[in-house]
């Protein structure tokens, strides 16, 4: 797991690079809500990687240029993650880095998947569609845990958007050690 000080430095660097971090739709509050949702569900999805999910939440919409149709934001964010890793700012084993980049690259419009980490990344983002006044459709969710009607309804309040990155990192650390 990335040490807390390195993770918070990574958060600061991503904020610096993000052109749209203050957006009420795709900005940092949404990033935190997605990370929180992933970490909430990870104990229910065998094989899902807590650290990769935390990083997905942080990075998946960081390269959006605006809140409108921006189909290349996922590939741009995946490229950013690869660059951060090459520069030594994101220490992640190569297979986990590939998983993270693939989840980010395809998070918009990708079909449900049986890959536990990638599927849960997509689900965490899709459960937060409530922020756009869209009820998440279970047909587009990959995991059984995310498809539960009570869980879908729970996310209408967008839990986690006010959590600190330090608290989210601590939660990922706790889950990663389980």
Tell me what the structure shows.
With 178 residues, the chain is mainly alpha-helical. Helix 1 crosses helix 9. 55% of the residues lie in helices and 0% in strands. It is built from nine helices and no strands. The longest helix has 14 residues, at 4-17. The chain is globular. It has helices at 4-17, 28-41, 50-59, 73-86, 94-105, 116-126, 144-147, 149-154, 165-177. The two termini are 12 Å apart. The chain has a single domain (4-177), classed as Hypothetical protein af1432, CATH 1.10.3210.10.
Features:
single chain, 178 residues, mainly alpha, Hypothetical protein af1432
Main sheet properties: none
Portion of residues in beta strands equals under 5%
Oligomer: single chain
Radius of gyration: 15 Å
SSE order, one letter for each helix or strand = HHHHHHHHH
CATH class: Mainly Alpha
Shape assignment: globular
| Number of E strands | 0
Going by CATH, the architecture would be Orthogonal Bundle
Structural class: mainly alpha
Question: Summarize this, please?
Answer:
With 178 residues, the chain is mostly helical. The protein contains 9 helices and no strands. It has one domain (4-177): Hypothetical protein af1432, CATH 1.10.3210.
Question: In terms of topology, how is this protein built?
Answer:
Blueprint: H1 4-17, H2 28-41, H3 50-59, H4 73-86, H5 94-105, H6 116-126, H7 144-147, H8 149-154, H9 165-177
Helix pairs in contact: 1-9, 2-3, 2-6, 2-9, 3-5, 3-6, 4-5, 5-6
């Amino acid at each position: 797991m990335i040490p807390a000080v390195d993770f918070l430095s990574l958060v600061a660097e991503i904020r610096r690079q993000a052109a749209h971090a203050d957006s009420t739709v795709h900005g940092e509050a949404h990033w935190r809500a997605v990370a929180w949702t992933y970490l909430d569900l990870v104990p229910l999805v065998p094989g899902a990687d807590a650290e990769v999910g935390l990083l997905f939440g942080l990075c998946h919409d960081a390269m959006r240029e605006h809140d409108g149709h921006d189909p290349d934001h996922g590939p741009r964010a995946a490229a950013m993650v690869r660059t951060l890793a090459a520069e030594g700012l994101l220490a992640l084993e190569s297979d986990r880095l590939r998983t993270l980049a693939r989840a980010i690259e395809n998070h918009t419009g990708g079909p449900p998947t049986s890959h536990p980490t990638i599927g849960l990344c997509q689900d965490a983002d899709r459960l937060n569609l409530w922020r756009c006044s869209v009820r998440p459709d279970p047909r587009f969710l990959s995991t059984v845990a995310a498809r539960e009607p009570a869980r879908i309804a729970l996310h209408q309040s967008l839990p986690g958007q006010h959590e600190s990155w330090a608290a989210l990192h601590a939660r990922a650390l706790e889950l990663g050690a389980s």
